[in-house]
Structure formats: structure tokens, C-alpha cells
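go over this chain:
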Amino acid sequence: MNALIVGSIGIDDIETPREKATGLLGGSATYASISCAVHAPTRIVSVVGDDFSADQRMLLEERGIDAEGLETAAGKTFRWGGRYLQNYDERETTFTELNVLRSFDPKVPESFRNSEYVLLGNTHPTVQLKVLDQLGGPELVVIDTMNYWINNEKQLLDEALGRSDIAVVNEEEVRLYSGRHEIPRATEAFLDLGLDAVIVKRGAYGASMRTRDGWFFLPGYPLSEVRDPTGAGDSFAGGFLGYLASEGSITESTLRRAVVHGSVLASFAVQGMGITGILGIAREDVMTRYREFLRFSQMETEVAKAAGEGAIA
């Protein structure tokens, strides 16, 4: 089934404890759409400036992403700069230039309006709501957000969350939104809005998902080297949505497998600067790491049983 990704496309300047790079293609929609396209036909709705090159657009299209919904506006493309501290978990934003993103009024192409699986990436809740208004009733809506919108656009964010099915947030965001420190209690605030599930991203420590049926916990993939954590959460969300779109069903089992697939894409993302970690990834690469996740997160007898039942998908 088709997947639709909504979010920002930007140009990033990134500095880590080991290296520095400028002018990298980034943004929430970029990471999410590339990750999503590993599994499913992917469409994108976003905006860039007239400084966005044909080569940059081609890079997305070469990954099989339908860019009909990528608007070019007069002005400069969104730009962002960040510096990671020694532990790679803490980050300082060095600059943010909204540019054409400031006045973005999303227009969903007619051919996209039947999209069944939708990711509302981290962007202004008004943009998220305007996109939903133009769709014909998607089967699944996944929403991402950030501290800024929780603090400054709470009412609009509540409306966007209320029209979504699954929220993808990190630990800080779930605590800030709920006003509660304990994660089990904090997730209740999202379920109270009518969401079917909330996924809490925990960086290098993995992810947890709470549905109305219970909890699912997944450790982080043990990497020997991390180059750049930028876009890991967006890659997670894109991989999560793409897997569900490829399955065409939403059950407790497919949701759990989708969390693993999201974590796999995130693990690839942090191994390269910018999007280079996910650019050359094929589905078989993802499946290999997916099976590794199962091997080190379950008892041997359970892995063997799953393999015998054909459950490793």
C-alpha cells in the first residue's frame, strides 16, 4: 500500500566530536521518506526553496520516492545546524533558518489523496491538520512532534493528535506533554486522546510501545560506532510506517515487528553523516539486521519457534 510522508526538507550543517560537514540534505521528511521507501511505495509532501538543486531532487526520486507533492517556493530552503556533545546524546542547535518553511501551506496532489498510511512528521501542527483535511480517510495516521510545539501550540497539537492513531515521541517529549515523570503514567495522556498506541523513542537504549493491549520493549542495536545521530528518530518513524504499509494490516504483531524495523532503519541512519547511512540500504540489509534483533532480544527456543512458523517477515 502507498505511504505518504509529510514534513520538512532542509540543508544541515552538522558537527560531531569526530567530524564536521556542511550543506547536507536533511529534514524530517527526507530521512523518513528514504527509510519508508525501503519497504513501500512512498510519496512526499514538503517545500523547498529555489536554491534546491535538481541533483538533490533526483536523489529522492532515485530512491523511488514520488516527489509530485514537493513544492518549490521563491526563497531559500529551510536550514538547520547542530553540534553534538561528546556522548552523542546531547545536542546544541547552532542555528535555525525557517526560510520557505515559515509560510508553507501544504497542497496534497490529487493523486496522493487516497494514501492509506500517513506519517505526519515533525512540523507545525497547522501543516499536519491541513494535510489531514485534504486526505480521503487514511487507514493509519502516525504523528511526530517536538518540545517547541508542545510548549507553544498545545491546542493545535491536541487536535492533530486527536485525529491520529499512533504518536512517536521521545522520553522528554512524552513527559513534557503529560506533565508526568513516570513513562507508564505519561503515556496515558496520549491514549486518553483516543490514540491506539504511543511509541517512546529512547535513543541508544531502544524504544518502547504502549498499546491498549499492553507494552512492547526493544533494546537498542549494539553499534560499534556512531557517526551522526541526526535523523535517527525520523528514520525510525519512516521505517515503522513503511513496514506497516508493506504488510497492509495493523495488528499487535505487525505493530511490534514495525517497531523492530523502525529501530533497524534508525541504526543504519546513525552510521553515516546526514542521510548517507540509509541511502544505499536495500531491503535485504534491513532483513539481515532485523533477524539479528530477534536473535539477541529473544530466547533461542522462541527464535527457533518463530522461524518454524514463518513469523520472521
Q: What stands out?
A: The chain has one domain: 3-308. The chain has a mean pLDDT of 92. Residues 252-269 form the longest helix (18 residues).
